[in-house]
Amino acid sequence: MSSVTAARPQAVRPRRNTRRGAQATAVHLAAIVMSVVCAGPVLLLVVASLHDSVFADFSFTNLTVANYERLLANEVFLRWIVNSVLVALAVTALTVAVDVLAAYAFAKMRFAGRDITFRVMLATMMLPFSATLVPVYLLASELGMIDRYSGLIIPAAAGPFGVYLLRQFVRGVPDSLLEAARIDGAGHGSIFVRIILPLCRQPMAVLAIFTFVANWNTFLWPLLMAQSEHMMTLPVGIATTNTQFAQNISLLTAGAVISIVPMALLFVLFQRQFIGGVLAGAVKA
Amino acid sequence: MTSPLPDTATGQVAPPAHPARPRRSDAGERRRPSRRRRGELGPAAPFLVAKVLLFGTFIAFPFVYTVYLTFQRGSLLTGLSFAGLENYRNVLQDALFHETLRNTALFMVVVIPLTLVVTCAVGLLLSSRIRGMSVYRSLIYTPSLLSIVVAGLIWKMLIDGETGPLERFTNGVLGLDIAWLTDGNTAIVFLSVVTVWTSIGFYSLLFMAGFNNVDPDLVDAARIDGASGWQVLTKIKLPLIRPVAQVVLVLVTINAVQLFDLVYVMTKGGPGTATYTAMWYVYQNAFNGGSVPYAATMSLVLLVITAVIAGIFINRSRSEADDV
Question: Which fold has domain A67-283?
Fold first, then answer.
């Protein structure tokens, strides 16, 4: 709404300034209201986690970290943290590695079936998970992946989004650069390692952050894969053990806060890549 | 959608034509690619094999298998047999499936307009250049950092009958007695609102990028011609971000049909079957002792419905864009 400035600057100077000031105030006000609506409930969650009580307590007095101490001394909860970190990191590493390799082939090599294969992959980008859910589960169980890290990790790296994202970028690498390398005797392997990888660092970072965040928060697939308590990720653990694990809700809220911390850190540290991922992710279902 | 298997299979299993080809000939081949039909399939194979294998195994094959399952009856343990269109007939006559569609439709009727209006407005807000906007942007993005599980936990706490601040406000201050999750329709509307809350950050950023991409010269030119701020917004900016709105519309639609996590955390489909969404019903059938072919059929019917709605939205906005 900053665009809503006075139409005729030559009219009256002082009035224009006050109008602009009023508009800036209105924008600030609207932004503050939205910030409270969005961040307020999360702040309340943090406050609730700092109380040791059966019902959620939102007062700002008598705060204690007892819940956090108890959680971080709990073996099962620590295992969930380890699982979440391990799975999200592994899916991210696998996705980025596999996708950048494929992106190079799709962008810079010519082979029979290239375009049709790529188009088929692209077409599935909007395919809802429900359309493949049942067979993927059956397949995972057939392959003995249930309740194993392999089941949590490998199927999650199958999506076409990264190939699409990185291929766009690799296509932008000038052919003359690759041609020159080839004349110097470089094969595809060394072109990939020496030219493509260094040039793709930025989009790979975007893909990595996007993948990590998505897999950190994902729920349905790990819910199906983790049959035993010690294979659960944080969201699954928090959602399924309401009753047995935390008789007291503040313990649960502390667990929830711990699950947010890595996301908040990533957001603060890598805001540019984060937003880049969101914008690139707009094409993903 | 065509069967993706044959092509993926070629890309994956075809042996390298010349495994030990000297490097030089790669360069020679590159110059005249059309001479060889297979092109660089050999050299490309090592780059492709991992992705093609993963994609083929966990997306392409399962999708084809879903379609196959819809024409089967029985279970994998007892053995499958051909059922013709039986599953489709049953799904279309299933009263509970109809109810899930009604629930999903109600959910979409709230989520879609609310998301579009709110996130477009917030996107416009975020695109304005005022001091401290990056702080606001971070705060507004906060809910999108949470997993749906945590978002559900937060809102359940806020409406808690004993200490929930939101419940205390609506009940104590406004004097409203809202049956947040115990009345069917209210529960769906509440799930919708929470869903919008979780996605404000994400979609607002898309709109923000759209507004930032509007050519400033265009706005300046309109200003010089005497356009008011409102006119600049409605006649220039909004028409130009129509493609963003279209993307948001399609994403919201797809996600609305897939609604599952929030149902799991907040209502488990209840009260009764009032918040049974289509995806929840598929899950119940596939993993809680229902029929696997039946679940597969429902998921395919859902896919068709989603595709039709998304297609309508895309065509609608295209033809509207042509009118402008």
Answer: MetI-like fold (1.10.3720)
Residues of A in contact with B306 (CB under 8 A): 128
Q: Does residue B189 or residue B182 have the better pLDDT?
A: B189
Residue B51: its chain A contacts at CB < 8 A?
98-99, 101-102, 163
C-alpha A79/C-alpha A76 separation (Å) is 5
pLDDT in tens, A161-182: 999 999 999 999 999 999 999 9
Query: Is B317 contained in some domain?
Result: yes
Cα B290 to Cα B73, B74, B102, B278, B279: the distances in Å are: 12, 11, 21, 14, 14
Torsion sign over Cα B306, B307, B308, B309: positive
Nearest-Cα distance to chain B for A114, in Å, is 8
* Residue B27, domain extent: 5-69
Give B127 to chain A, closest Cα distance, Å.
8
Taking a C-beta distance cutoff of 8 angstroms, is the pair A134, B87 a contact? no
Of B143, B163, B278, the CB nearest to A55: B163
Work out the average pLDDT over A73-85.
93
Task: Tell me, yes or no, if the pTM score tops 0.90.
Answer: no
User: Chain B residues with CB inside 8 Å of A187's CB?
Assistant: 23, 26, 43
Helix (H) or strand (E) holding B28: helix B23-31
Minimal Cα–Cα distance from A79 to chain B, Å? 18
Which pLDDT tens digit goes with each residue over A237-254? Answer: 988 865 445 566 788 899
Residue with tokens 């194993």: A148
Q: Which of B141, B162, B299 sits opposite A133 (nearest CB)?
A: B299
Global ipTM: 0.86
Indicate the domain borders of chain A: 13-49, 67-283
B19: how many CB neighbours lie within 10 A of its CB?
9
Q: Which candidate from B58, B139, B148 shows the least CB-CB separation from A136?
A: B58
Q: Which residue has the tokens 């971070």?
A: B138
Residues of B in contact with A27 (CB under 8 A): 125, 128, 130
| Cα-based distances in Å from A79 to A34, A86, A230, B139, B288 | 36, 10, 6, 30, 27
